[in-house]
Amino acid sequence: MKLESTITVSRIDSGMDEEVTIEIKDISKSGIGFFCTEMLEVGSIYQSSIIIWTKEKIPVLLKIVREVDHGEKKFYGAEFMGLSEIDMFRISVYEELERSEMM
């Protein structure tokens, strides 16, 4: 199962507002790892929405904590900020489904 996601490339303190698609590599209830062709700034906070396996959209704020260069695109690690308990549970269910498919 692949999760779809978009990230609104706008810092909370900035006027820039552009939506791009990201390629999710891994996800947990505390954060996300993804590839993106846009340049994001470590330490900054971005608006995002993740479309989970049930096709529900979960709005989240992402704090970029890591960046790794992969040529044309970069890999970013981000922490979820202000994610509700219900949404954390939904993501943890996805993690379990993903693990069971790998076995």
Q: What is the CATH superfamily label?
A: predicted glycosyltransferase like domains
What structural class do you assign from the helix and strand content?
A: alpha+beta
Strand order of the largest sheet: 1-2-3-6-5-4
Give the strand content.
over 45%
Largest sheet: 6 strands, antiparallel, barrel
According to CATH, the fold-level topology is Thrombin, subunit H
- Binned, the helix content reads 10-25%
What's the Cα radius of gyration?
13 Å
Unreliable stretches: none
Given the structure, what is the number of helices?
Answer: 1
The mean pLDDT is: 80
CATH class: Mainly Beta
Architecture overview:
With 103 residues, this protein is of the alpha+beta class. Helix content is 17%, strand content 52%. The chain contains one helix and six strands. The protein has one helix spanning 85-102, and strands at 4-11, 18-27, 31-36, 45-51, 57-70, 73-81. It is globular, with a radius of gyration of 13 Å. The model has no long low-confidence stretch (mean pLDDT 80).
Please write out the topology.
Layout: E1 4-11, E2 18-27, E3 31-36, E4 45-51, E5 57-70, E6 73-81, H1 85-102
Antiparallel strand pairs: 1-2, 1-4, 2-3, 3-6, 4-5, 5-6
